[in-house]
Amino acid sequence: MKKSNPPTIREIARLVGVSVNTVSRALNNKPDVSPETKKNIIKTAQLLNYTPNAIARALVQRSTRTIGMVMSDISDPFFGEMVKDAEVFFRSRGYNLILCNTQENFDQEKHSIETLINKRVDGILLTPVGRNGENLQEILKNRVPIVLLGRHFDEPIAPSVTSNDERGGYLATQHLLELGHHKILFINVFHHISSAHDRFLGYQKALREFGIDYDESLLIHASFDLDDVYQKTKKFFYQSGKVTAVIVFCDILAISVMKAVIDVGLTIPRDISIVGFDNINISSLLPIPLTTIDPNKKKMVETASELLLEAIRLDNIKAGNLSIEPTLTIRSSTILSV
Amino acid sequence: MKKSNPPTIREIARLVGVSVNTVSRALNNKPDVSPETKKNIIKTAQLLNYTPNAIARALVQRSTRTIGMVMSDISDPFFGEMVKDAEVFFRSRGYNLILCNTQENFDQEKHSIETLINKRVDGILLTPVGRNGENLQEILKNRVPIVLLGRHFDEPIAPSVTSNDERGGYLATQHLLELGHHKILFINVFHHISSAHDRFLGYQKALREFGIDYDESLLIHASFDLDDVYQKTKKFFYQSGKVTAVIVFCDILAISVMKAVIDVGLTIPRDISIVGFDNINISSLLPIPLTTIDPNKKKMVETASELLLEAIRLDNIKAGNLSIEPTLTIRSSTILSV
Do A281 and B142 touch (CB under 8 A)? Predict the structure, then answer.
């Protein structure tokens, strides 16, 4: 047999005396092939110079089923904690997890998606950078099942599972209003991120219901950079004395905000109350434990993962957003306004 | 042509009128193929029913060169920060990065490695769970280039780049001894992790040089679980009054330790000085900024990545450990013992 013509599965099947399906299952590590039959098939394939990669794959004693998880900021414990939940979920169902990080960069997201398609993952969990689905063209063209996690698009191009972020923004604001704070600073990331936009809508809604006018000088936009948030917060408090409470887009940035508030000479919570989002593990372990909005990360991840497995099984992608109700977790960083 | 015999690259080359090498480059997205030639090659391949996956791969406008990075704890910002450095390094050199998380689990490490080999990464950066190289058998058999990052094996099976952890443990301990602390608690993770073992050796060395006997009651072993560290620290301080300083294996666990110390009614640094390791971003942003040992993460990552690229280029894996010198970063969590 010429070296340049690898044997077909049909030829291997004929020589071993089994069906083509059985050979295919054996060489792709699918279950339901007896160890002895699998051994014979591999031996025969090796004798016939079947491509080395295929043989190597068959010898790896592990399912090749893989999910790709694309996160937007690996240095935020919020994502690390969700990855751990996803791993538990998928491992128990026979899937491996490989991860990509986009660092909130739209081009990096495109490259990550292309890489995962190239590596032939069975499905993708994606926390998207923007609110449009431009980067999903390859995915949709290749019919790779995908579920968005934690953020959604403006158009229902792909199914998504998010926290009810508008409700979360509302709960955070309502909590502070009920404590008597009427001048509430909102330190947010940029609104191309859907959760930022939705939390802000909730903030505005709560203000409206309390009869308080929205004051646009009480909104700061920052990037996810800890130092950027620190500098902008410090600058605000040097210039302005009227605020008594702050809502921060997420806990990891709230740590930076707290440091800035302390560094300008104010105390928490006596001078300034602070609320974050995410309920990351360290938020309860800070010297001043942080009041936060808990999105129920585990439920978000499990719901998104179930949806993804269903899309993989049924080869069918349902659009639409499933939102998980968040809860307010009150700790020491918020008190009555004096 | 029978459907079950895919055309060879040789046949495509002949029909298009180019070399076999050019066809291979075009179908594998390698550079140096003119867009027009590439188009002709793909068209011909499609006409001849070349396997769909290969065509799809060729159409994805991105290099398929990939590095797999296997980290041991994705929820520790130490790793998130190293991943960001690795991404910058590899992206500028035309490589994509895919990640796996082992969560300090030896079996999970084995599965992660098998998954990455299966996905045919060009090389692997690994922060290993244990000190023996058992899980590397598949890698070494398949001759996949690998460099260990942050930890090393007992035997020089694979090249590694680490912080000089013994020196780091020494610097942390020396700093506290020079401040007059003679009863120093060491909260460490288990010693199957090489950096834990090495930091501990440095601690013992500094004590010896200061003429202080090593007291084994001043060593606590904890897991990477924030709550486990918190509980063990609290229990120690309820039972013992003699310690005036604590060294903690890493910053993220030090946050837990600080909370436990505060919760038993002690103050930092006046009652208890604390030193961590890693210099993660938030360590400088804590209300009590944390004194820590900076391993120079960026240099560690770049050194390991250069080594890996060299191993890929030369198809040659040099054994041996390269250690990067750490520095002591003094902040507010340590003061003179009174």
Answer: no
Mutation target to probe the B interface, by most B beta carbons within 10 A, among A3, A48, A75, A142 is A75
| pLDDT tens readout for residues A289-312 | 999 999 999 999 999 999 999 999
Sheet of A273-277: strand order equals A219-221, A184-188, A245-248, A273-277, A291-294, A327-329
H-run or E-run covering A141 = helix A137-141
Separation CA A163–CA A193 (nearest Å):
13
- Output the domain CATH number for residue A106: 3.40.50.2300
User: Nearest CB to B282: which of A10, A87, A255?
Assistant: A255
Residue B258 clears pLDDT 90, i.e. is over it: yes
ipTM rounded to 2 decimals = 0.79
How many CB pairs below 8 Å do chains A and B form together?
155
The DSSP secondary-structure symbol of A50 reads: -
> Is A200 inside a domain boundary?
yes
Q: Which residue of B has its CA nearest to A252?
A: B282
pLDDT at residue B28 in the model: 76
pLDDT band at residue B3 under the 50/70/90 scheme: very low
The stretches in chain A having pLDDT less than 70 are: 1-7, 49, 51-63, 317
Q: CA A153, CA A128: separation in Å to the nearest integer?
A: 8
Chain A: nearest CA to B206, how far in angstroms? 30
Q: Report the alpha-carbon distance of residue B168 to residue B174 in Å, rounded.
A: 10
Q: Are residues A264 and A246 in the same domain?
A: yes
For B133-161, write each residue's pLDDT tens digit: 888 887 787 788 999 999 999 988 899 99
Chain B residues with CB-CB distance to A258 below 8 A: 287
Residue B40 is predicted with a pLDDT of 87
Residue A57 lies in a domain: no
Interface test with B, best of A28, A49, A57, A74 (most B CBs within 10 A): A74
A5, A230, A288 ranked by CB distance to B5: nearest: A5
Q: Are residues A198 and A291 in the same domain?
A: yes
**Which of chain B's residues have a Cβ under 8 Å away from the Cβ of A108?**
87, 91
> Domain range holding A158?
66-163+297-326
Same-domain check for residues B263 and B313: no
Please give the single-letter amino acid code of residue A169: G
Specify the pairing of strand B291-294 against strand B327-329: antiparallel
Q: Please tell me the total count of domains within chain A.
A: 3
Q: Is residue A93 part of a domain?
A: yes
**Residue A98 β-bridge partners:** A68
Cross-chain Cβ contact A287/B258 below 8 Å: yes
* pLDDT per position as a tens digit, B52-87: 555 555 444 445 799 999 999 999 999 999 999 999
Domain at A17, CATH number:
1.10.260.40
Chain A residue at shortest CA distance from B10: A4
Query: Is residue B129 domain-resident?
Result: yes
Q: How much is the CA Rg of chain B, to the nearest whole Å?
A: 25
Task: Give the gap in angstroms from C-alpha A209 to the nearest C-alpha of chain B.
Answer: 35
